[in-house]
Write a structure and sequence with these properties.
single chain, 141 residues, mainly alpha, 7 helices
Amino acid sequence: MFTKDNPSPTAFKKGQSGNPGGRARMPADWHETLKAKTPEAIETLASVMQDKRAAASARVAAAIAILDRAWGKPAQNITADINESPIAHLSFAERRKILMEKMGITPTAATAIGVTTTIAAAINDDEDADGGADEEADAQA
């Protein structure tokens, strides 16, 4: 049996890549050969797209492939509101509770290992970054 002290002779050496040369490159002449097949590939896609006996999924896939190559893939718009934190309105106690739940820590265990202090420090750092607005709101409540 192989162990740390007696590794397999084919095992990677520490600090050495298992694939130092990277992925093998395609031979240069293949690019030209494959490019020459482009009209045939497009004809095949077009025939599948127009074949009423072909599965609908195959016809749609062929149509999408043709459109993507002719016009490019459509742009994907992503809308995000990065200015407001989803927890900005929560009090310190609510934030702590959510963090502990996400971490799977019970209040008793958290007290025993001092996690509540760590979480409190992280939240306080966050509050310091936003000017302590939440702390002021908690004090007024």
